[in-house]
């Protein structure tokens, strides 16, 4: 017998999840599926409390929130293997740009779960992407503001604010224990999915199921050329540029003497050393992104 636990972030996407919850409860009641609801109050509530919230009889987790909420649930869950039914109601909603999506009713009933890769960043788990340096600076600024809009437009505003002021430090990079690089990179992204920042397809050839991570490294360029490279990324024309490294990898070590700001699935982190690797464990997940709020 199916028994769901619903993890709801009530503030994700300006409260979209709360409005969706009414429709979700009706569908589950009509299907006679037992469920209980846990609402997060503070950041990282799901990560800290998930193993206490899940009783042994719960068969599935329904996550209503953004990529950050999903990240919290997976970090709180790992390494327990319980399938996730993800309803994406966040600001950027980047993860669902790389996976097949279902209707609200389908996501609550289907057993056609995707088995996707996940990765580790030091002691954390990632699902979609890690952005180091510039991306971390942007996310930190976005976290400080109460935005009235979301998605690519919101991210783009803060990108433009940081575009001409961010000064990347020299980083040492070791790829798959073989290739060494020492250089300044304006963009440093390690990705499992295709998109980051609400719709920047930095790694457009990425797959969640191919047992590889993808890197996008864009070298520091003169200030006058920064808008040009921003446009190339927006148009998905950056992959052939000589200043850009796009590559499939298994693991990467990124080090610097200066503490760097970063984000993983929209969650702000920082450090001087980032060791990232693909994990052997797979995540069972299906996803839904509402077209409009009920």
Describe this structure in words.
- It is a single chain.
- The longest helix has 15 residues, at 16-30.
- This protein has helices spanning 16-30, 45-53, 67-77, 104-109, 134-144, 152-163, 226-234; strands at 3-8, 34-39, 60-65, 84-88, 114-121, 124-126, 129-133, 170-175, 179-191, 213-219, 244-249, 251-264, 267-288.
- The model has no long low-confidence stretch (mean pLDDT 92).
- The protein is 25% helix and 36% strand.
- The two termini are 28 Å apart.
- With 294 residues, it is of the alpha+beta class.
- A hairpin with a 2-residue loop joins strand 5 (114-121) and strand 6 (124-126).
- The protein folds into two domains: 3-124 and 282-288, Probable inorganic polyphosphate/atp-NAD kinase, domain 1 (Rossmann fold, 3-Layer(aba) Sandwich), CATH 3.40.50; 127-278, Tumour Suppressor Smad4 (Sandwich).
In a few lines, what is going on in this structure?
With 294 residues, the chain is α+β, with helices and mostly antiparallel strands. The chain has helices spanning 16-30, 45-53, 67-77, 104-109, 134-144, 152-163, 226-234; strands at 3-8, 34-39, 60-65, 84-88, 114-121, 124-126, 129-133, 170-175, 179-191, 213-219, 244-249, 251-264, 267-288.
Key descriptive features of the protein:
single chain; 294 residues; alpha+beta; Rossmann fold; Tumour Suppressor Smad4; 2 domains; 13-stranded mixed beta sheet; 7 helices; 25% helix; globular
Measured distance between first and last alpha carbons: 28 Å
Q: What is the CATH top level name of the largest domain?
A: Mainly Beta
CATH architecture descriptor name of the largest domain? Sandwich
List low-confidence stretches: none
Number of helices: 7
What portion of residues belong to β-strands? 35-45%
For the residues shown, what is the average pLDDT? 92
SSE order, as H and E?
EHEHEHEHEEEHHEEEHEEE
- Kindly name the structural category: alpha+beta
Shape assignment: globular
**Helicity range:** 10-25%
CATH topology of the largest domain, by name, is Tumour Suppressor Smad4
Biggest β-sheet, characterized? 13 strands, mixed
């Amino acid at each position: 017998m199916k028994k769901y636990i619903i993890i709801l972030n009530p503030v994700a996407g300006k409260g979209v999840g709360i409005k969706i919850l009414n429709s979700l409860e009706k569908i589950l009641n009509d299907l006679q599926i037992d469920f209980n609801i846990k609402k997060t109050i503070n950041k990282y509530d799901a990560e800290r409390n998930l193993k206490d919230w899940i009783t042994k009889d719960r068969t599935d987790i329904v996550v209503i929130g953004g990529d950050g909420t999903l990240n919290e649930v997976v970090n709180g869950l790992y390494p327990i293997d319980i399938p996730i039914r993800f309803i994406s109601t966040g600001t950027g909603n980047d993860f669902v740009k790389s996976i097949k999506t279902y209707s609200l009713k389908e996501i609550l009933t289907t057993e056609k779960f995707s088995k996707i890769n996940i990765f580790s960043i030091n002691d954390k788990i990632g699902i979609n992407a890690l952005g180091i340096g510039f991306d971390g600076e942007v996310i930190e600024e976005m976290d400080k503001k109460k935005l009235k809009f979301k998605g690519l437009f919101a991210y783009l505003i803060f990108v433009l604010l940081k575009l001409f002021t961010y000064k990347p430090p020299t980083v040492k990079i070791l790829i798959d224990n073989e290739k060494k690089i020492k250089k300044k990179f304006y963009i440093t992204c390690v990705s499992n999915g295709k998109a980051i920042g609400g719709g920047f397809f930095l790694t457009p050839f990425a797959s969640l199921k191919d047992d590889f991570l993808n890197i996008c490294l864009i070298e520091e360029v003169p200030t006058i050329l920064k808008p040009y490279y921003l446009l190339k990324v927006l148009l998905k024309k950056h992959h052939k540029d000589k200043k850009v490294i796009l590559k499939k990898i298994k693991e990467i070590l990124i080090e610097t003497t200066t503490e760097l700001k970063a984000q993983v699935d929209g969650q702000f982190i920082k450090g001087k050393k980032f060791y990232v690797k693909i994990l052997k464990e797979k995540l069972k997940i299906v996803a839904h992104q509402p077209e409009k709020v009920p």
